Amino acid sequence: MATHGIRRWKALGAGLTAVALFAALLVHVLPTSTFLYDEADYAFAASKGVIANALDSPSLGVLDFLALGLANRQAENNTQTRGKSGETLSEYVRGIGDITLYRHYHPPLYFYTLSVAGRLFGFTERGLRLASASAVVLVACLVGYFAFRLMRETDVHFGAALTAGGVAFLFAASSPILIETGMIVTPHSLFAVFAVVTVGCAGLFLVTGGRFWWRATALSLGLSFLTLEYALVLAASVICAFVFARWRKWSVGGGDGRLVLEAIAIITIVIFVLWPGGVVKLTIVKNYLYFFYFALMRAGSAYGSASLTEVWGMRVAESPPLLLAAGALPLLAWEMRRNVNLVGVLPAISYICFLFCANLRNHSLQPTYVSSLIPALGICLGLSVGMLVCRNRWAGGSLAIFLSFLMLTTTAVLAWPPDVSDQGGTIDNQEHVITAFRDRRIALPAGTCLSVPAALLPSVHYYAPSLRLRPYDFTDTIQNSFGRCDHALLTVTGNDAMRYSQGRIVVDLGTGDVTRYVVLRK
Fold first, then answer.
1. Residue 102 lies in a domain
2. In which domain, by residue range, is 9 found?
3. Which of 282, 285, 315, 395 is 20 to 30 A from 105, comparing alpha carbons?
């Protein structure tokens, strides 16, 4: 017994050391660059405070939201949309300060954490990104914990469960997808926390039948609905896992009507208490309408143009262990037929399948959209290695060592340090011009109407909130770029001085590698 106790303490010490090292590495490489596009709007929403986000104040009413959406359904880009008075839709909605727009129609829980982080560490780039980095560290810890717990529930020895937890933790901690998600301001980082808690607690409920795990699953689902629209996919995958396990008579935990009503009550109370504006103002309905529209009608233009094969090929090239984790799924499914105690991994497998299908029309290379897949894949990989250790300690231990070496080496060689420089868009030298606004090298009088490229508008608004901004498309002519504004932020490639002839240079930011930015006045 004393020997087992010492082993447990050593394992705990090694685990805490690994977590501390992972956290230190993330903080060390946390970017200090300016907020780009999504990040800028998220930071602005968080700066309004917890109360404003909880009450969705101010925001468009549902009827106005629907009317404007229907009126602009034929628009191909933001600059072609129109508000109530003829201005672009972006100008109109930003003019009334609609906080749900700044959240990009996401629920408010992540913005509560951003607001708290801003109060503690300042609304700086590094201070707000620390919230995402902290969430990713927590995700890696939870992946290791749930892999360990689920493995223990299969009545295996401590070493096998510890191996499962260690492999799962390393898979998550070394995943470029998860690491890059932790480097930027995005609600996907916090959602990954609730995704792993939900599938982990649901799995433990299936194995043990404990009411605690049922209620924890419902609570985590409720919090996930307050974080990201993927919660609908998460809920569907858990329900499917429960129904399938009950049909196969694999589950110890029942799913009678009383338990279902209890779960619905918990989820409803959590949403109403923590997001009253979402219920009273029907913001939650607006959010899902917005994302259903994008998923069904605009996915091709809004979420990248690369093919599905190219997208996943690049992800696997950056992180080859993804293939091994995916290969663990059919092995676990087959093993589950012989070992019913493995039913605890069913919610994780179900979520992987559901989320992959939900992203079939999303061809974006950004890692955030699939970041919550990593925890579920990590649990599956950990349990598959743990099962091998049970059968053959030498073979299983050797595989665990090889996988650990492979995961750490591929990340160090292929994806370290993490590069998130393209998360805000594809405009040349955008960091250069946004830094100029942040450092007040572009200082225009308050209330000045400035036309800016649509892709730069959120960032310029965050660092220069006193300006009235109008977006324009890069294909616009010089005159159209100005629109109704007296000033325009224009780009000049090379020494194309002819583009200066339409106005007088107010600010010249100099020449970068490709693009030169100037502020012109009519």
1. no
2. 2-29+130-275+308-414
3. 315
Tokens of 139: 């995700």
What is the DSSP pairing of strand 487-493 with strand 468-472? unpaired
Report whether 145 contacts 313 (CB < 8 A): no
| Together in a domain, 470 and 375 | no
Q: Please state, in angstroms and as integers, the Cα–Cα distance from residue 251 to each residue in 204, 214, 236, 248, 255, following that order.
A: 10, 13, 18, 8, 9
Percent of the chain's residues with pLDDT above 90 = 30
Spatial strand order in the sheet of 449-453: 468-472, 449-453, 487-493, 515-521, 504-511
Residues 147 and 23 both lie in one domain: yes
Instruction: Based on the fold, state whether residues 357 and 500 are members of the same structural domain.
Output: no
Distance of CA 20 to the CA centre of its chain: 23
pLDDT tens per residue, range 154-188: 777 788 888 889 999 999 988 888 998 999 999 99
390, 414, 438 - which closes a domain: 414
Core vs surface per residue 53-84: b (16+ CB within 10 A) or e: bbbbeebbeeeebeebbeeeeeeeebbebebe
Q: Are residues 151 and 235 in the same domain?
A: yes
Task: Report pLDDT for 343.
Answer: 86
332's enclosing H/E stretch is helix 321-336
| Residue 186: predicted pLDDT | 94
Mean pLDDT of 404-422: 69
Tokens of 60: 């468009």
Secondary structure (3-state) at 264: helix
319 & 370 share domain: yes
**Preceding amide of 417 cis, omega within 30:** yes
**Assessment of whether the complete model's pTM goes beyond 0.85:** yes
Judge if 359 and 251 occupy the same domain.
Answer: yes
